[in-house]
Amino acid sequence: MRNIAALMGFLISLLAATIAAPAPGKGAATVPATQAQVQLSFAPLVKQAAPAVVNIYTQRVVEQVARSPLFDDPFFRRFFGERFGAGSGRPQRREENSLGSGVLLTADGMIVTNHHVIAGADEITVALSDRRVFEATLVLDDERTDLAVLKIDAGAEKLPYLELRDSDSLEVGDLVLAIGNPFNVGQTVTSGIVSALARTGIGVSDFQFFIQTDAAINPGNSGGALITMDGRLAGVNTAIYSKSGASHGIGFAVPSAMVRAVLDSAKAGRRQVKRPWLGAATQAVTADIAASLGMKRPRGVMVSALYGDGPADRAGMTVGDVILAIDGHAVASPKALNFRLGTRMIGKAARLDVWRNDDTKSLILQLVAAPETPPRDSSELQGRQPLAGATVANLSPALAEELGLDTLGSGVVILKLDPRSPARRFRFREGDQILQVNEHRIGLVADLVAVMKKPVEEWQITMQRADRVHTFRIGK
Questions:
Q1: Considering 146, 214, 321, 432, which one is annotated as catalytic?
Q2: Got the DSSP string for 380-421?
Q3: Is residue 453's pLDDT more than 60?
Q4: Does 116 participate in catalysis according to the annotation?
Q5: Domains plus CATH for the chain?
Q6: 222 tagged catalytic
Q7: Residue 442, pLDDT score
Q8: Span 335-344, average pLDDT
Q9: In the predicted model, is pLDDT for residue 11 greater than 60?
């Protein structure tokens, strides 16, 4: 046994000598060089950080109508019509419970978690690691980032909390720990590395710029902490890529830069997050676009349209400019641009590095919120016409941003639909933009209301849904 121990020590020393390099600078990452370093533990870090990670339990009451499955049978509907069984059954109330995790970010009890953890909850309960339980108040809920801020009252006691790390300082390969409450088994710690940065296309929020990690994340971990080796919060665990519902080593966290922006809004007493508005439409720079602009390689995002007298226009931007960076942070896609703007504060300014005419220029962008011009003037359409039961509003940059639509668009948008309305039966959807009715251009709600009151034999309605324009012909 002594010979084996001696041999192991010799091999470790040999490995250290083999990979040895010039002495790294202070704080530089190094490979373990001795047996003692291999046996290092995360325990001190966990003891420091774990008390700030909490369990979140939610409860909501839903009503459900109990009815016979015969009412949904196609055989009976064929003879009795689609309304067969309508109104039958008694509504029954039942409770739905869910669980998740959260992170204390202030000593006075402010907690960040995921929007999807608390969405629709009637009651929110927070359990600390020391088993104390508090009722939580929802301070701010931001569906677009899938983040929410809660508040608990512990009196004069200072609660344990995590400091935020600058997520832009992360590098692929950095060690991280994920702390949460998977499957409600209790607080659990898993370890891994930062697998990738700036992941987009995940589809769980409007601002997609996720940290990817292989630290095991499972249902119940949502809203929990992703921490680095200095004990600070790098991100909030939000989603996993899985076909079975269990961890497959691909998890995603909202970066702390976005968490900070949402937390700052909550501290300022705002119920909603107001984000800076660029006032421009952009597109990714392809290899063909880069070649046409004289760029050596594709990078940045190109400005394809400008909102007249908007922030980008006032900053001196022109169509065809390529935005390379914001405040020194490179932007590689429109989603990356949205993320960078979303982490900035309204009322301040940002420096844009722009490629124009084979040269790089710096422009100063004043950070302002999207304007609500024209006013919404929301109205529910009525009468014997195909849009009856639709609530519509004037589309402004502010409303378009709220709905996730093109902020340079205009016209009238459908906000909601009565489930039993003609508009729903004719398959109109929330978010549809009404552009034209019977050769009448629709600019405002008043225009649409006036046109829909006119008696006609046939309706021809042109609308935009996502990136496509459709025309419907509907007879009386």
A1: 146
A2: E--SSSTTTTEEEEE--HHHHHHHTS-TT--SEEEEEE-TTS
A3: yes
A4: yes
A5: 43-82+89-271 (2.40.10.120), 280-366 (2.30.42.10), 379-475 (2.30.42.10)
A6: yes
A7: 94
A8: 90
A9: no
